[in-house]
Amino acid sequence: MGKFNKKLNKKNKPLQLEVVPKEQEQEIHLPESRKSDDVIPKKDKWINKQRVLVLCGRGINHRDRHLMKDLKTIMPHHRDEPKLERWKTLSIINELGEMKHCNKAIYFEGRHKQDLYMWLSNLQDGPSAKFLIENVHTMGELKMTGNCLKGARPLLSFDQNFSKIPHLMLLRELITQTFGVPNHHPKSQPFVDRIYTFTYLDNRIWFRNYQILAEDGALAEIGPRFVMNPVKIFAESFTGEPLWENSDYVSPAKHRRLIRQSAKDKYVNRTEAKARYEATMPTEIFNHDKIGKDVFADGDEEEIVEKILEREENMEQDESEDEEEIQEKREKAEIARVKKLIEKLKPGKEGKKLVKQKDFKSGKIIKKGKTKKGKMIQNIKKTKKLTTKVKV
Predict the structure, then answer these.
(1) Are 156 and 162 within 8 A, CB to CB?
(2) Is the pTM here over 0.70, yes or no?
(3) How, if at all, do strands 128-137 and 78-80 pair?
(4) CATH class of 52-255
(5) Which residues of the chain are in CATH 3.40.50.10480 domains?
(6) Each residue of 54-91: pLDDT tens digit?
(7) In whole angstroms, what is the distance from residue 330 CA to residue 245 CA?
(8) Considering Cα of 82, then 175, then 239, then 100, what sign does the dihedral take?
(9) C-alpha pair distances (Å), 159 with each of 201, 230, 245, 273, 378
(10) Other CB atoms within 10 Å distance of the CB of residue 259
(11) Which element (helix H / strand E) includes 105?
(12) To 10 degrees, what angle do helices 325-344 and 301-319 make?
């Protein structure tokens, strides 16, 4: 019992503080004055604590998944998250960002297993932007010669349009805060050996990743490469009123539907043309026997020619019955012109040569033998001579 009491007495004793003599105390002397030109030493700290939550939804294909993996490799300040279920709303990403201590988010949304949409969002107060990703080429697919240090900080280069167009100015700030690696990030390297270019062309944003080879500006592409087609910009994170909407945007599903419809129209037009051709196909062949009988008939050549011309005139009149009044007047004028030619071009006495005469249309001097009636008369005479020779 005595030993036990001694231990209790030792525990109950108060602690005694050691007294340090004044001679051993360290004296700290502060400067009485400081010059204004002196540079205040600053501690290098990780001040810009931007963290980006990178995730995707179910339904993306293998190429889109590799694109997301490439973006993770070039962004050391990202945070991973498993796939998001389809039945969940996009507002859940805000809660996931709070749990992961992230203030930015990149969400890949797949539709129809062939269309890819990308969301860039500021998880705290917004805004958020929706893009359609086109022309995707990953690092493994390109196999470019460029190579750089993993985790190095990039330079972000923007087109001149990003400082002129209002909605591009907003997207520029959102892209800068999302893709820019913070200074003195624990997972980053203190080097700048790459550059991201964002070019605005054809109402789209073209992304390229290059390695800086030398100080003179020599570059080598690394990858990945893709095109962002902006669709909408919302006031809040994944929700809110639309601040801007692309009027030239056409969804890929609608574009494919228009292509199928155009192919369908080609088939319909081809079948209609075929049916129209068969319906308007002539059933009767032109009868040349009547003209042949008139040509080889015995009689005066003038009478034969007049009969042929009258028959042609009658055929023209029959065809022009259903036409408009203007066309009928034109045909009557042509008939009158032919009759005048017949009267003027009557053959003279035998032994006389054909007299030169002016054409009433062009005013040129022509021979009577060059007219329609004269040619027909000459042809009939030749055929009669040939037939008489054959008979002999």
Answers:
(1) no
(2) no
(3) unpaired
(4) alpha beta
(5) 52-255
(6) 999 998 999 999 999 999 999 999 999 999 998 889 99
(7) 60
(8) positive
(9) 9, 16, 21, 51, 82
(10) 10
(11) strand 104-111
(12) 170
